[in-house]
UniProtKB/TrEMBL annotation:
Subcellular location: Cell membrane; Membrane
InterPro entries from the UniProt entry: ExbB/TolQ_transport, MotA_ExbB_proton_chnl
Key word Cell membrane present: yes
All residue ranges annotated as the MotA/TolQ/ExbB proton channel domain in the record: 93-214
Source organism of this protein record: Saccharicrinis carchari
Transmembrane regions listed in the UniProt entry: 34-53, 136-156, 176-199
PANTHER family xrefs: PROTEIN TOLQ (PTHR30625), TOLQ-RELATED (PTHR30625:SF17)
Chief location of this protein within or outside the cell: membrane
High-level lineage: Bacteria, Pseudomonadati, Bacteroidota, Bacteroidia, Marinilabiliales
A GO BP annotation: protein import
A Pfam family it matches: MotA_ExbB
Name of this chain's protein: Outer membrane transport energization protein ExbB
Keywords: Cell membrane, Membrane, Protein transport, Transmembrane, Transmembrane helix, Transport
Superkingdom, natural source: Bacteria
GO cellular component, one term: plasma membrane
Amino acid sequence: MNPLLLIQTVADETEVIAEVAQNEMNYFEMAKAGGLIMIPLVVLSVVAVYIFIERYFAIKKASSEDLSFMNKIKEYIHEGKIDSAYSLCQHVDNPVSRMIEKGISRIGRPLQDVNTAIENVGNLEISRLEKGLPTLATVAGGAPMIGFLGTVIGMIKAFFDMANAGNNINVSLLSSGIYTAMVTTVTGLVVGIIAYFAYNFLVARVEKVVFKLEARTMEFMDLLNEPAS
C-alpha cells in the first residue's frame, strides 16, 4: 500500500473521530439548557441523598443489638438485681435498651402500666427513626412534577419562538425550548425514581426495627409474668 495513501487515510479517520468527539453530548451543557427549573431539582437531589445517607446509618445503628443483652436482663431480673439491670440499660445505646429501661423503672406497678410505658418509649423511638422520611417521600413525588413543569415551560418557549419566527422556522430555533422540556423531564424523573426507591428501602429497614422492638417488648413482659405463673 502506498505510504502516502495510508497516512492520508489515518489523517482522515483521525479527523472524523475528532469531529465525532466534539459533537458528543456534553451533560453539563445539557443541564444548563434545562434553565432555572434545574436549580430546585438539584437542591432536591442533594436533600434526598443527604436524608438517605443520614437515615441509613441511624437505622443501622438502631437495628444493631447485643444478643447477650436480653439474657443478662433476664438473669438480673430472676436474681432480683433490678439496679444492675437498670444500669445495664443505661450503658447500652439503642432503642431496645431504652424501652427495657423504662419498663424496669416501672417494675412494681400493674403490668398494664409497665406495658403502656414501654409502648410510649417505643413510639418515640420509631418517630426518631422515621425523621426525614416524609421529606424523602415528598422529593419522590415532587421532583417529577417539577420536571413536568419544566416540560411545559420548554414547550411554551418553543411555540413562542415558532410564532415569532414566521416562515423562518428551523430546528435550531426550536432546540432551546425542546432542550429545556426534555432535560427537566429526565432530571425530574431520575431524582424522583431514586428518591422513591430510597424511601421504600428505608421504610423496610424501619419496619424490621419495629418488629424487633415488639419482639423484645413481648419478651420482657413475659419475663415479668414468670413469677406469677
